[in-house]
Specification:
Oligomer: single chain
Structural class: mainly alpha
CATH class of one domain: Alpha Beta
Strand content: 5-15%
Helix content: 55-70%
CATH architecture of one domain: 3-Layer(aba) Sandwich
Shape: globular
Strand order of the largest sheet: 1-4-5
Number of strands: 5
CATH superfamily of one domain: 5'-nuclease
CATH topology of one domain: Rossmann fold
Largest sheet: 3 strands, parallel
Order of helices and strands: EHHEHHEHHEHE
Distance between the termini: 26 Å
C-alpha cells in the first residue's frame, strides 16, 4: 500500500511560514523539509506575495541581511515562481473580504486576531485549503476554530 502524498494545493502558507524558506532562521530546516514532502506548486495569493516581499525588505532594514542578500533572496523567490514551485492563485477578493468580516465578527473578540491575520484565514477558506501553515499563534487558533488543520513545521 502506497503512503498518501500530500499535495501543495491542499495547503495555504501564510507569509510567516514562507519567510522561513527565504530568510534563514531556526525554522528554515523544518520548513524546507516539510516543503520537500509535498507534490506540486504551493499556491499563494498576491497578498502573500506582497507580505513576503515586505518581509524581505524589512529584513534588510533591520540589518538581518544586506542589500546583496536582499537581491539574492528576491531572485530565489522569483525563481520559485517562474519554475512552478510557487504559483500565484486567483482569489475572489470580495468573497475573501466578506469572509474576513464574518470571521472577525464571530472570532476576534475571543482570539484577538488582527484584520490581516483574519484575511489570511479567510483566503485559505475561500481557496478550499485543508491545511493552514503558519508560525503565527493567533492565526493558527483562528484556523483551528474554523476547521482547518494547522501546521507549524
Amino acid at each position: 500500500m502506497r503512503p498518501t502524498v500530500a499535495t501543495a494545493e491542499e495547503s495555504y502558507c501564510d507569509s510567516s511560514a514562507l519567510r522561513a524558506l527565504y530568510l534563514h532562521d531556526p525554522r528554515t530546516r523544518a520548513m524546507v523539509a516539510w516543503r520537500a514532502t509535498l507534490r506540486g506548486a504551493v499556491p499563494i495569493t498576491k497578498f502573500v506575495s506582497a507580505e513576503l516581499t515586505n518581509a524581505i525588505a524589512l529584513a534588510e532594514f533591520r540589518g538581518d541581511i544586506d542589500a546583496s542578500q536582499h537581491e539574492a533572496v528576491r531572485a530565489h523567490f522569483r525563481d520559485d515562481l517562474s519554475n512552478g514551485r510557487l504559483v500565484i492563485t486567483d482569489l475572489l477578493w470580495r468573497a475573501a473580504l466578506d469572509r474576513t468580516a464574518e470571521l472577525s465578527r464571530t472570532h476576534t473578540a475571543k482570539l484577538g486576531t488582527r484584520a490581516l491575520d483574519v484575511l489570511h484565514v479567510a483566503s485559505a477558506l475561500e481557496l478550499g485549503a485543508r491545511t493552514f501553515v503558519t508560525y503565527d499563534t493567533r492565526q493558527a487558533a483562528l484556523a483551528k476554530a474554523v476547521g482547518l488543520k494547522t501546521l507549524a513545521p
